[in-house]
Amino acid sequence: MYKPIRDLDKHLINIQQLSDISTHSYHIYLLATDMDGTLTKNGKFTSQLLNTLERLSTAKIPVLIVTGRSAGWVSAISSLMPIAGAIAENGGLFYLSDNSDPVTLTHIPDLVNHRQDLAKTFVNLQTYFPQIQESADNLFRVTDWTFDLTSLTTEELQKIGNLCQQMGWGFTYSNVQCHIQPPGQNKAVGLLKVLRQYFPTYFPEQVITVGDSPNDESLFNQRYFPISVGVANIRGYENQLQHQPTYITTAAEGDGFCELCSYILENCQM
Ligand SMILES: [Mg+2]
């Protein structure tokens, strides 16, 4: 069911700082975007978003959703939305839009043991933070383990991250969930593997990454993605990000994504 992907660590890297998207010599782009808080508005997809995605599809601008949501969710989203594909679990798995079989992006030798180890780690965290509760969609996950973000302070999240690291796990969080995950698994690593394998004709300068939260931070790393965009609500996390987006939209959430896409559709096509 789960197909391994060949090791793609030797990806092309091009370091470049751009002053304005429209001045770039490339005119064909691929959009790699977060979903919650970036495509949604108050937690929902809007008619404006679906219209925008259809316009991008008509213009032959591929859209990849890169989300922390579970394999179960993303399997459906990649099939139902007018997109090229979707990456689930912050870089854990990839679904091409026309193929329901997921591709694992993180190598996990024994899935049963992996889930058991994640469960033990979560129980251990609960001894420090008894209030944390497993997320409803955790049942539909393959590579990571999630619990709800509710009422955790920035300091508590930092402590949870340190505890996960001590137990040999990675940790990240978004505007909705906290993720215990394999070390080194993040959106950028997963996206780079997918780009190399499935979209090899696109240079890094042609990939525009978009996000709104700390779990999008790797997508803002200019070493890998010279053009990154935060929707306006990213400003709430500015002090928590090691990598800042190159651009920030005026509007927040899905409205910010549509703002960016209108700009691309009007200014960046041949
Ligand atoms: Mg988000």
From TrEMBL:
Residues 30-259 form the Sucrose phosphatase-like domain. SUPFAM superfamilies: HAD-like. This is Cof-type HAD-IIB family hydrolase. The lineage of its organism: Bacteria, Bacillati, Cyanobacteriota, Cyanophyceae, Nostocales. Pfam families: S6PP. Keywords: Hydrolase. GO terms for molecular function: hydrolase activity. It comes from Dolichospermum heterosporum TAC447.
